[in-house]
Design a protein that fits this description.
The protein is of the alpha+beta class and 278 residues long. It has a single domain (2-15, 22-274), classed as paralog of FGE (formylglycine-generating enzyme) (Alpha-Beta Complex). 28% of the residues lie in helices and 8% in strands. It has 8 helices and 7 strands, in the order ααββββααααβααββ. Strands 1-4-7 form a 3-stranded antiparallel beta sheet, with no helix packed on it. Strands 2-3 form a two-stranded antiparallel ribbon. The chain has a two-stranded parallel ribbon with strand order 5-6. Helix 1 runs parallel beside helix 8. The relative contact order is 0.23. Pfam families: FGE-sulfatase. One of its GO terms (molecular function) is formylglycine-generating oxidase activity.
Length: 278
């Protein structure tokens, strides 16, 4: 318990000091972002998820969120797949990307623009990628990033149940996986899938979502005022429906600590798509 609280205090510290002035973008930056991406065709299975209602970690006790039917990649995007993306879309190479779209550690574990680091597994999840880069990859693949609600809806499942959150071991098992060091270097799909057939929701990397900080980042979010500055700065954490759900709190706090151009050693992503299931 003490170890868990220590982790939460560290994350909470990041969580509440993370509000910064929005970065300024030039007309050249907007031109960069609006350039059309060259299409890619990653060989990854997408899992169809039948939507439904779920209670998010934050909000009122009786608040339920409706999640529509969607598809999600069965695993995170790999180093090899992102390498193919940057080769076909040179503006996202490490030496070409604009700093407003990715900070100075973007792809820092690569040897150069088109070469992975010597100790990198091509089948491990890509990391040190910004939200903008992840979004561009998804668009290039004809997909998008999952929403927080879609991601958390899938994350409720364990191996045998679509909603395992009330099981005593659910949160503790996830936290044990979060505590493992350097797990992001391992290849995808080496663990068991969950109820839906989705792999690696907790055991490899944290993952970007389209609305990672509860205010959807759009093309002009860097020059427009946010609709709810307090929510963007993570004050909504105080409305948690279950403060004892440490695993959910850790994810929520981590997301709120991010800016869209941040790149982190254990932060990757997977893609999603809208879906109509008859």
């Amino acid at each position: 318990m003490i170890k868990i609280l220590h982790i939460l205090l560290i994350i909470s510290g990041i969580f509440f000091i993370s509000c910064k002035e929005k970065p300024q973008a030039s007309s050249e930056d907007f031109t960069f972002q609006n350039q059309k991406e060259e299409a890619i065709h990653p060989d990854v299975k997408m899992i169809s998820i039948k939507g439904g209602k779920y209670q998010p970690f934050y909000g009122k006790q009786d608040s339920l969120i409706l999640v529509k039917d969607f598809q999600i990649d069965e695993r995170p995007v790999t180093n090899a797949e992102f390498l193919d993306f940057v080769k076909k879309n040179p503006k996202w190479k490490r030496s070409h990307v604009k700093t407003v779209f990715a900070d100075s550690t973007y792809l820092k574990n690569w040897k150069d623009d088109e070469t992975l680091g010597a100790d990198m597994n091509p089948d491990a999840p890509v990391t040190f990628v910004s939200w903008f880069a992840a979004k561009a990859y998804a668009k290039s693949a004809g997909k998008r990033l999952p929403t927080i609600d879609e991601w958390e809806f899938v994350a409720m499942a364990d191996e045998t149940s679509p909603n395992a959150r009330k099981k005593p071991s659910y949160s503790s098992d996830i936290i044990k996986q979060y505590e493992v060091k350097f797990k992001e270097k391992n290849p995808v799909k080496q663990s068991k899938p969950n109820y839906y057939g989705v792999y690696n929701m907790f055991d490899l990397v944290w993952e970007w979502t389209g609305d990672f900080n509860s205010v959807l980042t759009t093309n002009d979010s860097r020059t427009a005022e946010y609709d709810d500055k307090g929510l963007f700065c993570a004050s909504a954490a105080t409305t948690s429906t279950d403060i004892l759900n440490y695993a959910s709190f850790m994810r929520y706090a981590f997301r709120q600590s991010l800016n869209a151009n941040y790149t982190v050693a254990n932060l990757g992503f997977r893609c999603a798509k809208d879906l109509t299931i008859k």
